[in-house]
TrEMBL record:
Name listed for the protein in its UniProt record: N-6 DNA methylase
GO biological process annotation, one example: DNA restriction-modification system
Domain of life: Bacteria
One Gene Ontology molecular-function label: DNA binding
SUPFAM superfamilies for this protein: DNA methylase specificity domain, S-adenosyl-L-methionine-dependent methyltransferases
Organism: Streptomyces liliifuscus
Keywords: DNA-binding, Methyltransferase, Restriction system, Transferase
Pfam families, per the entry: N6_Mtase
């Protein structure tokens, strides 16, 4: 577009993005331009060759090189938005200690709502966002905190209301109690500075941080993308339902996969908080979903309208419905057992489909061969009535919040089934390990769909061909006749049909390879200390005695600060939820403070106890109780507070002693025995600050102290490397035993 056209757009449309000045030039954020162009269809007369009716200016912008930041999907079928390093850093900052400082006693979900509404409004509603910026610019401090939260809450409430969502987002934001105006504005500006891809990252970080229940955590993006690719066709107009919407991941995947078609997305949820997240996420992508949380009957027997496709990840192995809720359902395949809704969800999903409609349901693997009689008979009915087309076991550890292994059940409301068998796929070896999780990439999705889609589309070829295609792509598949599946156990677990002999499924090669790689990696690490010693010349030799050493009392080297008295900080003042962590003697483990303490104090209470704050490299000793090794404060523990039962040592600025050296010295057997012997012999031994201050400390010149700490630190790392090596060897031994005793590996 030429400049006059852009100026015309800016003059005629109040929601046109605001330019950013760079010298004498005005520039625009690509993400904002792409989002604005998404709602503007190219007139028929202006379509270029290859462009279909309904193409938007955003489609053309992306195709011709715009949107390099991937603030919106790269292309039809792409499962993920590339998230830049800066966005990851921003989300890490948001979801770290800043979150606790902003939320106060409120739940983490309330803080997440703040992040999501800011991210949405910053990109999608620039006019309203300017008002928020004005409020922040005019703010004077703590007294304006509530004004900013009310302004954000009103904006969120109005946004959701205009899109049919009745969630009380305003009330959620007003639950927040930030420690300071700066903390709140830092969080708001950090969230506002992220790209669209960070939206999903915040929600995933929330799942991992909180350890949510099965009913709450989000669906992995790769899993949602695979589900959509199995049953949706790009460009084909389709109605899609997710009856348990969570954060909107399944519906977002459907939108990405269908592409430019005018799909209709429906969502249901029993949790209004999750509905708000889903609404904002989908609106963030330029989609206006039809979401509801007003389903008064958990299992309505009749739906007014059927849908073409259902994609859903219902809660695993849970039941929120009492007995009467069961009787209202339409249980065409058999009444589900009390206490577990797995098969209630399966039947509800099938009842929502139009004839020949398809569904992909995330199910726990154990549901495929559970021994419960009612569930077994439901599986048998599903098989005999041709409702099950395919079952896919996906890699374990896909979810950040649960290790439960899952499968995808591809279901069909069959009128005239064309297949006499069921395709079972074991894709557990796919995926990429990322920290403690496995992630399904686009290549994994494409490998699975290359095998499964022809089966679902009715391709005519020998059943054995599917096994060959799967093997070529690194996983296993087999077609099993329905009458065989419907036999005594009626298992829908792929491993029961892909095993060898009577021993079940072969152990996974990927796990064995990972275990071998881990041993090799740790073997390399064991050589690092020797290399370090050779390269630096560091080591040790027999000395001539402590010449040039000094000796001083501890009180002359440190500021000694005992924790607050119990009367000032009683148990009633503590909380297990949000606030500043308190350090107790039981939190001192192996010279460190544990990362998660049991007790906290509210932020407002903590403000009165600044005197007892901890800083990096402070040393914490036991004051009341059995003496143990003092602990060194790490950088992430700055701002934590002393409890009544511990004492803080902080090295004085003019003291010629290194804090790491002093920490090591206090851990010596001599020093610990000295402290134990001078603790008052009461019911709980107590070491006063005055007594502790008379501990004699011997130390060499500062340079020698640091060399000594370098050497001891390297030995600590060496010991850790050996411990990790032993653990890796144990894992390799266990994996190798599985293969050797199964016959899939032979000794040389």
């Amino acid at each position: 577009m030429k400049r006059p056209a852009v100026s015309n757009w800016a003059r005629r449309h109040k929601d046109f993005p605001t330019p950013v000045r760079s010298g004498d030039t005005e520039l625009f954020h690509e993400a904002e331009i792409t989002r604005w162009l998404t709602d503007r269809t190219i007139p028929q007369s202006q379509l270029l060759e290859g462009e279909q009716a309904g193409t938007t200016f955003a489609d053309r912008f992306r195709r011709t090189g715009g949107d390099r930041s991937s603030a919106v999907p790269r292309a039809v079928g792409s499962s993920t938005q590339r998230i830049g390093t800066e966005d990851k850093k921003a989300v890490d900052q948001l979801m770290g200690p800043l979150a606790d400082r902003v939320r106060g006693p409120a739940t983490m979900a309330d803080f997440v709502n703040l992040c999501l509404i800011v991210m949405y409004a910053r990109h999608a509603e620039p006019e309203r966002w300017r008002r928020i910026e004005d409020v922040m610019s005019a703010g004077q401090g703590a007294r304006d905190v509530q004004s900013l939260l009310r302004c954000l809450g009103d904006m969120a409430q109005d946004t959701l209301r205009r899109n049919g969502d009745r969630t009380d987002m305003r009330g959620s934001l007003l639950q927040l109690e930030p420690r300071s105006w700066d903390d709140l504005t830092t969080a708001v500006r950090t969230a506002a500075g992220t790209g669209a891809g960070a939206f999903q990252l915040v929600w995933e970080s929330f799942s991992a941080r909180e350890g949510l229940q099965s009913s709450e955590f989000c669906s992995p993006v790769g899993l949602a993308s695979l589900s959509a690719a199995l049953v949706l066709t790009p460009g084909l107009k389709t109605t899609v339902l997710d009856p348990y919407t969570r954060g909107g991941e399944m519906l977002a995947a459907a939108h990405h996969h269908i592409g430019g078609a005018r799909e209709t997305l429906y969502g249901e949820t029993l949790d209004g908080r999750l509905q708000a997240v889903a609404s904002l996420y989908l609106l963030h992508l330029g989609v206006r979903p039809k979401l509801t949380s007003t389903r008064s009957d958990r299992w309505p027997p009749n739906r007014e309208h059927g849908v073409d496709v259902v994609l859903t990840n219902p809660p695993f192995n849970m039941s929120d419905a009492p007995g009467p809720g069961r009787r209202t359902g339409n249980w065409s395949y058999g009444s589900p057992p009390q206490g577990n809704d797995n098969f209630a969800w399966v039947q509800y999903v099938l009842g929502a489909l139009v004839p020949d409609g398809r569904a992909v349901v995330v199910m726990p693997v154990k549901a495929g061969n559970s021994v419960n009689a009612a569930e077994r008979e439901i599986r048998r009915a599903l098989v005999r009535r041709c409702a099950v087309e395919c079952v896919i076991t996906v890699p374990s550890h896909l979810f950040s919040a649960t290790p439960v292994p899952v499968s995808l059940w591809v279901l069909r409301r069959a009128e005239n089934p064309s297949r006499e068998g069921i395709l079972f796929v074991d894709a557990q070896e796919l995926g990429t390990k990322v920290r403690r999780r496995r992630v399904l990439r686009d290549t994994d999705r494409d490998a699975i769909t290359a095998v499964v889609r022809p089966w679902l589309d009715g391709e005519r070829c020998p059943d054995s061909e599917y096994a060959v295609r799967a093997a070529e792509r690194g996983f296993s598949a087999v077609v099993v006749a329905r009458e065989v599946v419907a036999d005594e156990g009626c298992s829908l677990r792929p491993a029961d049909y892909l095993g060898s002999g009577t021993y079940g499924a072969a152990p996974t090669t990927a796990a064995l390879l990972e275990a071998g790689d881990a041993v090799a990696e740790h073997t390399d690490r064991l050589c690092a200390p020797e290399r370090w010693a050779r390269e630096t010349g560091h080591g040790y030799r027999t000395g001539s005695g402590p010449g040039g050493w000094n000796e001083a009392l501890l009180k002359d080297l440190c500021d000694i600060q005992p924790g607050p008295s119990y009367t000032r900080l009683p148990a009633a003042a503590r909380t297990a939820d949000a606030g500043v962590p308190l350090v107790f003697p039981q939190d001192l483990v192996d010279g460190r403070i544990v990362d998660e303490t049991r007790d906290r104090v509210p932020w407002r209470t903590a403000e009165r106890f600044k005197k007892f704050e901890l800083l990096p490299d402070d040393i914490v000793c036991v004051r009341t109780g059995a003496q143990q090794q003092p602990a060194l404060v790490s950088g992430t523990q700055a701002g934590w507070l002393l409890s009544s039962n511990v004492t803080r040592l902080r090295v004085l600025r003019d003291a010629e002693i290194d804090s790491l050296y002093l920490h090591a010295y206090l851990g010596l057997r001599y020093a610990r025995e000295w402290m134990s012997n001078r603790a008052a012999a009461t019911a709980a031994p107590s070491l006063s600050s005055a007594a502790l201050g008379h501990l004699p400390v011997r130390f060499p010149p500062i340079g020698q102290q640091r060399l000594s700490m370098d050497l001891l630190g390297e030995l600590d790392r060496h010991a850790d490397a050996y411990a990790s090596f032993v653990s890796a060897l144990g894992r390799l031994r266990a994996e190798l035993a599985e293969h050797l005793l199964h016959g899939s590996v032979e000794p040389l």
